[in-house]
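Researcher: Here's a chain I'd like modeled. Treat it as a single chain, no partners, no ligands.
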Amino acid sequence: MTTSTAAPAADPVDPVRFAVVGYGAGGRFFHAPVLAGAPGCELVAVVTSDPGRAELARAEHGVRTVAALEELPALGVEAVAVSTPAATHTDLTERALRLGLAVVCDKPFALDTAAARGTVELAAELGVPLTAYQNRRWDSDLLTVRRVLDEGALGEVTRLESSFERWAAGDPPAAGAGLLRDFGAHLVDQALHLLGPVETVAAQTRSLPGGGEDDWRVQLRHRSGVTSELSGSWKQAAPGPRFRVTGSRGTFVLEAAMDGQEAALLAGRTPRGEGEAWGVEPPHRWGWLRLGDGPVSRVPSEPGCWPELYRLFALAVRGRGPVPVDPWDAVATTAVVDAARRAAAESATVAVTDPRD
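Model: Modeled as a single isolated chain. Structure tokens:
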């Protein structure tokens, strides 16, 4: 997987002028304040046809609001973050690309592999920067797992277990295109990011009475020989560990249910407001490592940093580095999710071909 976490020597002199497309929960809480706190980025506009949401955006960020993407170039906008219902992602992303606007597309990137591939090929044809909003590559927990793996304390890694489990009121929102495609877009991307391409997929889902899923499990066999076991649940009162990674020498466990940046943003805290304290996890949320039958040791967590995705994307727009998440990674993730849904429907193990092969 091609991704960048190391910054070039300096940030752009001229901030990239961004608009957020959509000002529902995603645009309001997980894009606008993150963008506003990212070096090299300037939030100047929001696209929404809802008068109430437009008023909120103006009050909260002092931005211009417009009803259509096509109005953005006249405002000097250079890049957009698409944060709208999943079924609209492909259309809005491709319209923005054709306007010459660089695009950060929220998850799920597309509703199927063919659509994802078509969007990535269009961006390449037009020469316009495109990335997927896999902000959870900059979760504290994922960064900590990456560090533990890089340090080699676990020896040869044999299995990774990863879960997004919570108890939520009501049913999963329909805009997410199903819990597997919604939560799964993050967990699959993280597994591919850590362990590389997948050969086979098995999966099990539990469906809601009206359709969709409220619980799913996916087993991935990576080309490296490592197995990933991923799970997502909307109705789990006792969530499992966020990560458990097993190797030939021992195991690393991180039990905290979710990276703290989500809760902080929902509570009105922002990266700009908290500065260097943003994303820092308190000791009681740190993971632990046990080698063999030896003692347990606590492992300090890396700070989470969602604004890093936007900082790196701004550099890419200025021609000073790669996009933070290779858009072909989004195609690969979509292909695995498609295979998982088929595997669950057919009670079968499904082979996966990496779309770049």
